[in-house]
Amino acid sequence: NNFGAAFSSFERLRDLPFSELKLHPEFVEGCAQDAKSAGVCQAAIDLAHRLGATAVATGLEHDADLVALQSMGCDAGQGPLLAEPMPKSKLMWICLATAGQPWLT
């Protein structure tokens, strides 16, 4: 297998403009305990930053994974741990209702 040859994901990263790189839930899930998943997450976060993009962890479900990803320098996250999917109107209401208030961490 010649990963990186022909039309690969790396070629697309090099040639297409993008502002964020999302980490797949398959790697995010359990990255606090699994060294290989953590390695993939760290490499993706570093790659995103080197390419001037934001790293976003998707499918966050566990506190330990959130803490691990934060320590790796991940910029943002999404998933059930942070908030369930919601309509835009509810999100806007939350943003307006909490404007000027520090977010809980």
How would you spell out the order of helices and strands? Answer: HEHHEHEH
Question: Using DSSP, what is the number of strands?
Answer: 3
Could you list the spans in which at least 5 consecutive residues all have pLDDT below 50? none
Shape: globular
Measured as a percent range, the helix fraction is 40-55%
Q: Tell me, rounded to a whole number, the average pLDDT.
A: 87
**Class from secondary-structure proportions:** alpha/beta
- For the termini, the CA-CA separation is 44 Å
Strand order within the widest sheet? Answer: 1-2-3
- How many whole angstroms does the radius of gyration measure? 16 Å
Number of helices: 5
Summarize, please:
The chain is α/β, with parallel strands linked by helices. Helix content is 45%, strand content 11%. The protein has helices spanning 9-15, 25-28, 35-50, 63-72, 88-97; strands at 20-23, 54-58, 76-78.
